[in-house]
Amino acid sequence: MNPTLIFFLILAAVSVAAALGLLFSRSAVYAALFLVLNFITVAIFYLLLNAPFLALAQVTIYAGAIMVLFLFVIMLLGTKKLRRDEQIAWQRPLAISLAAVLLVEIGVLIFGQARRGALLAEIGPDFGSPQAVGEVLFNQYLLPFEITSVLLLVGMIGAIVLTSDSRD
Amino acid sequence: MVPVSFYILLSAILFIIGTLGVLIRRNSIVVFMAVELMLNAANLAFVAYANQYQLLSGQVFVFFVITVAAAEVAVGLALIVAIFRNKKSIDVDQLSSLKG
């Protein structure tokens, strides 16, 4: 086993454990913090996969901005009210069995497909650098980029309209 | 070097944990966080294949997904706050006003 693989396995265990922590924690604040941990492990995976720019974007946007927004809303609504977790009796076993079926299906698909497609050995040093990503983004994907700005504007207006008190 | 199938399997596991979160949890903020987890798992698969095939398009797509997730979080959390103001609860089982 090479060191990268060992590193990957340890990090994968942390990542899955953080995701399970999100799934089973009673308090929404702990769930949010577990999710931050998961985002950071995924950012390290991005570094392993030659995507340094995305790794930093992941930490700043996801683990930084988005999760702070989540924590703000959790604090705003009060954590005490969030604790109650009633279940409909048949829901949990059904959900788990459906998830198991999905996992088996994805596993079969992956290991059926993964045999072909050999690993490409060498990757240039600037693969995934901000400059390379920017060149693809602003040449090949310029129109989607512009549409994204409209989407963000609509999201901002939507958030303001939905939370304003003047409606009622 | 780690085989790409390991990354895809990890991504699948994270995605399924996210699905379970959506199905099991009743707190709508936690459900929303589980959706973020699923988006993130999909992003991991994108980056893994971008590395495998040496195409930057996969990474650019992740960039778009992050942007859409940010917009989604802004609107979604605003919705949750608005619902909490009206119903004093964000339990997804209680939100059954549209049920006939």
Strand-helix topology:
The complex is a heterodimer of chains A (168) and B (100).
Chain A: H1 3-24, H2 28-48, H3 52-77, H4 91-113, H5 130-139, H6 142-163
Helix pairs in contact in A: 1-2, 2-3
Chain B: H1 4-24, H2 28-53, H3 57-87
Helix pairs in contact in B: 1-2, 2-3
- The strand count of chain B comes to 0
Number of strands of chain A: 0
**Largest interface, counted with CB-CB under 8 A?**
A-B, 83 and 70 residues
Intertermini distance of chain B = 56 Å
How much beta of chain A, percentage-wise? under 5%
Element-level helix/strand string of chain A: HHHHHH
Shape of chain A: globular
**How much helix, percentage-wise, in residues of chain A?**
over 70%
Proportion of helical residues of chain B = over 70%
Shape of chain B: elongated
- Give me the number of helical elements of chain B: 3
Give the integer mean of the pLDDT values of chain A: 84
Largest sheet of chain B: none
Spatial separation of the terminal alpha carbons of chain A? 63 Å
Average pLDDT of chain B, to the nearest integer?
Answer: 88
Radius of gyration of chain B (Å): 17 Å
Name the structural class of chain A.
mainly alpha
Strand content of chain B: under 5%
Q: Which structural class fits the helix and strand makeup of chain B?
A: mainly alpha
Explain how this protein is built.
- The complex is a heterodimer of chains A (168) and B (100).
- Chain A is mainly α and 168 residues long.
- In chain A, 74% of the residues lie in helices and 0% in strands.
- Chain A has six helices and no strands.
- Chain A has helices at residues 3-24, 28-48, 52-77, 91-113, 130-139, 142-163.
- In chain A, helix 1 packs antiparallel against helix 2 (28-48).
- By secondary structure, chain B is mostly helical.
- Helix content of chain B is 78%, strand content 0%.
- Chain B has three helices and no strands.
- In chain B, helix 1 (4-24) packs antiparallel against helix 2 and helix 2 (28-53) runs antiparallel to helix 3.
- Chains A and B meet through helix 1, helix 2, helix 3, helix 4 and helix 5 of A and helix 1, helix 2 and helix 3 of B.
